[in-house]
Each structure stands twice: as C-alpha cells, then as structure tokens.
Design a protein that fits this description.
homodimer, alpha/beta, Cobalt-precorrin-4 Transmethylase, domain 1, Rossmann fold, 4-stranded parallel β-sheet, 9 helices, 40% helix, disordered C terminus
C-alpha cells in the first residue's frame, strides 16, 4: 500500500526584498557589459554561478579594477572606507546595499556621533556586520550570543543595533543583559520584518511536520539560523543547497515534510527541491 | 531548656542618602521658624510626628500659604507646575528633591524634547511618579507591571525612565516587553543604587532566616516592595511600623529572625524593633 505524503512550503521562503532588488539590478547592469561584485552578490553558490555566466564577476578586492569599471556593492553593504577606495579609483558604483542594512548603518553612525559605546548584535565575520561596524567606530563590540557578554564591564551609555537577519529571541536576550550593564541604553531594533516573518513561518511549519528541509547556501547565515530554529522545535532537519543532496532514507516514515528557504535562495532552487520531493514519493526510485 | 535565637539586621536597612538629607535639612530649617511641607516629608508617620513637633507642618496644597512662607519640596519632588505655583506665590522654596529623582525628572524632560513617547515604570499614584510625569508630558504612560502593557499598540520610538525605588526584575521585564513594542527604545535605568543594594541585602537575608520583619510606613512604596521580596523568598514576613505591633506568637519556632527597613524608616524606629525582639527572647514575657 502506498503511503500518502504531504510536502508543505513555508510562507515567506526564499528571496527577500533586498536580495530580489540586488539580483534584478545586477542582471540588468550586466546586460550592458561586465560588472564586478565585491564578494559574492548573495550567499548562494548556485545563483552566483548563474550571475557569473551573465557577466557579474565576483572579485575579492578592488586591486585589479580600473577607473570606469562598474562595481556592485552587494546587499550586505560595505564600510565607508571601502566606498572611499572605490570613489578614489573612479569606479562606477552600483550600490545595492539593502535599505534595511543602510538603516542599521545610519543608526550606528548616529549612536557614534551621540557618544554611545556601540554593541552590534550579530556574527563578527559576516560582511553585513563588518559594514555596520564601519559606521559604528573602532571600539564597537560585536556580540553573537549572551555568553559573549560574560566579564564585560558596565558602561554608562550603550547603543545597540542588530544585524538585520538576527533572531529576535537572541537579540532580546542580549539586550536584557546590556540593560544590566548600563545606566542608559539606546536600542535600534534593526532586525528586518522579512527575517522575523520568515523565522516565525518556519517555526510554525516545523511544529506541524515530521521532518524539515532548509534550502540555501551553507555560507548563508540567515539560512543556517532557520536550521537552528527547526532543530529547536525538535524536528529532524536537513540543510541542503540543491535537490540532488536529498537522500531517500531521510524520507522514511515521514508523512508530512516541511520546506523552507533562506533570504538568498532563488525560487528555481526551491522549485527543484519541491519537485524532487514530490517525485520521491510518486516514484519508488532512490533519489540518487 | 531555653532556645537560642538570633536577630539579624539587613545591610542597608533604613534611611537612604536622599531621605537623610531631607530630614536633616528640614530640622535645621524648622529651627529658624515654622516651615511647611507639601505632603508628608517622608512616608513614615512616626517620623512625620516628630517633625511636626519640631515645626515642620504638612500641608495638602499651597492655598493657605502666604508670601514669604517657607515651603519644603520633599524628596519625591513635584511637577514643574507646582514649582511655578510656589514661585508665583512668592514662597521661599527649600527644594529637597532627592538628586536621583531629579535625574529621572531631567531624563524624562530630555526624552520629551527628543520626541519619544515616554513610559514611566512605577506606581501611578506615587508622588515621585507624579513629579516625573510632570516632566515627561501629558501623553506619558505609567506602567506598574508587565500586565499593564497588554493591548498596548506598538510605537516607533519609546523612552523609558523608572521610579527610583522600583525593583530591577519588574523594571527589566517591562523593558523587555517595550523592546517588542518599538523599533527604537531609549532606556534610562534610574533605579537608585541604594534601592538595589537594599533589595539585594534584604533578599539575601530572607534566604537564610526563619521569619522576616520589614519595618516602615505602610504608606511607603519601597518598604512594601521589601515585603514582597521577602515573601517571594518563601519566608513568613511581617510588615510593622513600630515595635509595639510585634506579637509573641509570630516568634514561635523561629531561631533566626531577619529585620530590614525601608528608605524612609528612621534608625530610632529600627532600634526599637531590634530591642523588642532581643527582649522577646531573653524575657519570657509575652511581647504585649
């Protein structure tokens, strides 16, 4: 007897506004000739491959670029020092910094002007956090988890901004600790709505299925965070970049399968995964 | 066999800096002639009686006062409208607003100028909160417990100050909720150190005795809060204003007795309680 299986895609899975805008503009710009992007445009190797084939080349720094070359600033933004370098080299700048990241940068700059010691809640090495720190000043502190605050000295005035893709629960735990460590605390909650909505939809879906697939780049911080959320819900969770990674044995005994995807996961990749999962239960073939 | 009994006084019990300063200055001022105090100088009926005998008279409003009369502004402070009335009546103002309350007033004023919607964490009817609201503006919201926030609409910018004698745990719970209700949150933690220290010392003492006595005015908010803290520690707790209220049966079976007192409880009242408790276990007489 064939067991019925249900595949459910989470609301809000895939590209957010900032990523969609960056991808669309990059493709348009590349139609007029080669463009360079400082670091991969998004944290999704499959989409970055597709972009390269269309003329969007990833560079690690500005050294090889010549005056007049077109430089894309990706959605994560860059510190002001990099913008200055690009201007000094007379590059044509296509600034695709996500407007929500731009807000976090401006709030960080304002907190610095107002004399606050700044805490950025986020991942130290993430390019978005690096871009925000550029505006927050050299003595800004990056805090990833409440444990990072152990031993931190009390400060009179603390200013706080967040990486736009942070989970609210981690952010609020850190703010609560910072409240204890200061007499004056100014907090800009710069977590973007689309992150919160995607995380809520993912958590809710994980709660009512047997297993979860999270689709997106292994180098994508927001995708990895969705994996953690699903595991916190106690569900077996598989982080995959593409459909080909799905293994038949993972699906054994699962009658409801949830699928979600990070903000940098293109629709065509998500579609591929959904198609494979549907086939996986119509055919009796092993998936690979 | 006589059972040994230990009486332990909490650290930091009794007058805080602001109250001590107010009492001392009021006595000095009254030595030069009658002075008026708008509302009881402190929330301790026994000490207010003593002050009256020395020439510090409590008035409920400014109506009966004449130009040149001396008016004490007590440690809780007053809204600016009352200060203006006093100036308009040409009263001689002796401003004994606690400097920490003065800070909360100034921070509230600054938040108002900066355009924040202001939340005062404290008791709606407490004169200190009323004085702070005078600086926070008419649309300020007073929040006593996190439950007060139920149904509150999200605000873009919220500014927060606290009644100086709030408990930190209640304050931080409320701040956590306000973080969820705003995109920008500026918090001045105006709880005074002496409150925190007294509460911590009380909690720690309550944890290691059999019963607790909390000495202070029944109209004293900070004293009442000490009672709650002791009960949260699971200890039988008696709120008394004076030694005469102690009943022998309360002491049955208690080998360790803790005593603490609010910020407005005079030393002579605390001493009276300690003396009675010591007698209570040396003599075999019922306490009253």
């Amino acid at each position: 007897m064939k067991k019925s299986r249900e595949i459910i895609l989470a609301d809000k899975a895939g590209f957010c506004f900032g990523v969609k805008r960056a991808i669309n503009t990059a493709f348009k710009a590349a139609a007029g000739g080669k463009v360079y992007c400082l670091g991969p445009l998004i944290h999704n190797p499959q989409e970055v491959d597709r972009l390269r084939r269309e003329g969007v080349e990833t560079v690690d720094d500005l050294k090889t670029l010549k005056p007049g070359d077109s430089l894309i600033i990706r959605s994560h933004g860059v510190p002001p020092s990099v913008l200055r370098q690009a201007h000094d080299k007379d590059l044509t700048i296509i600034d695709l910094t996500c407007p929500f990241v731009g807000k976090a940068q401006r709030f960080a700059e304002r907190l610095q002007i107002e004399g606050y010691r700044i805490v950025v809640v986020g991942e130290k090495k993430h390019p978005e956090v690096q871009s925000i720190i550029g505006y927050a000043g050299e003595d800004a502190i990056v805090v990833e988890t409440p444990a990072d605050l152990e031993g931190m000295k009390a400060q009179r005035r603390l200013g706080v901004v967040a990486q736009t893709t942070q989970s609210y629960s981690n952010f609020s735990e850190i703010v609560l600790e910072l409240l204890r460590l200061s007499k004056e605390l100014k907090v800009y909650n710069t977590i973007c709505n689309s992150t919160t909505e995607r995380q809520n939809a993912t958590r809710s879906l994980a709660g009512r299925v047997d297993i979860m697939f999270v689709v997106g780049g292994r180098n994508s911080a927001n995708t990895t965070r969705l994996v953690s959320l699903c595991r916190e819900e106690g569900k077996p969770t598989y982080h995959i970049e593409v459909a080909d990674e799905i293994r038949q044995e993972w699906l054994q005994g699962a009658s409801k399968i949830g699928v979600t995807a990070g903000a940098s996961t293109p629709d065509w990749v998500i579609e591929g995964v959904l198609k494979r999962l549907r086939e996986g239960h119509t055919s009796k073939q092993p998936v690979r």
